[in-house]
Amino acid sequence: MNKLKIAVIQHDIVWEKPEENLQQVSNIIKSAEYADIFVLPEMFNTGFSNNVNDMAENINGDTIKGLKIIAKEKDAAICTSIILTEHNKFYNSFLFIKPDGDIIRYDKRHLFKMGGETDMFTPGKDRIVYNYKGVRFLLLVCYDLRFPVWSRNRNDYDAIIYVSSWPITRRHAHDTLLRARAIENLSHVIATNRIGIDGKNLVYDGGSCIIDPKGYPLAEAKNNEQEVIYAEIDINGQNKFRNSFTALEDADDFDISI
Fold first, then answer.
1. 111 phi and psi, to 5 degrees?
2. What phi and psi values does residue 61 have, to the nearest 5 degrees?
3. Which of 57, 98, 142, 227 is catalytic?
4. Are 215 and 182 in contact (CB under 8 A)?
5. Is 227 labeled as catalytic in the residue annotation?
6. Cα(38)–Cα(142) distance, integer angstroms
7. Which is catalytic among the residues 68, 74, 108, 209?
8. Does the active-site annotation cover 57?
């Protein structure tokens, strides 16, 4: 399959209330149109919290169990991040949850030290690209957006999924970098961000969108509104563009050191 329908969910997050947020998201997805993939903001169930001891769950926790049920019932994949604990360490983990319950996990590489993330979390080491229904997705979280080397397309992916909690004070950077990542990598970009005010009094106004490989929006959420936006990404069309505009072939070669 070379065309996938993507649903991006932009919503407010109840601060550090996983059960309430899971129920909210469940209601939104159940009433939404069909899509192959539903994308939720970063730390959708807690907000961008550093209260890891109370908010962290393991891979068999209630939040993941709940998302698996929703994915199965909707017959769709669900993407988001949560605070995950493993071997006495804490991770901001992107979870790609398939309808059959299988999970692909990416641990956020670039931790936001200005928000205290480096004091609580362990950074990931592996760059994850996952092929779902014939489309190769690069999985990234929020602050990863600022680091183009980590996002660089080496002809190994078709689309980037970013899940974020990106405050309004840096919204211009968010919007600009999303389009830059699409243009420089000749790739679709799927991005979700929350709205509302969190427990640290940070304000978020959204900016969720789906962008085509030329940097043009296929769908954009309204500012400060809970909304589900949809778009179909066409990989055959993207490949025709790449074959006619061969910028990826001229990219500089490099190695990433971890």
1. -85, 140
2. -75, 170
3. 142
4. yes
5. no
6. 17
7. 108
8. no
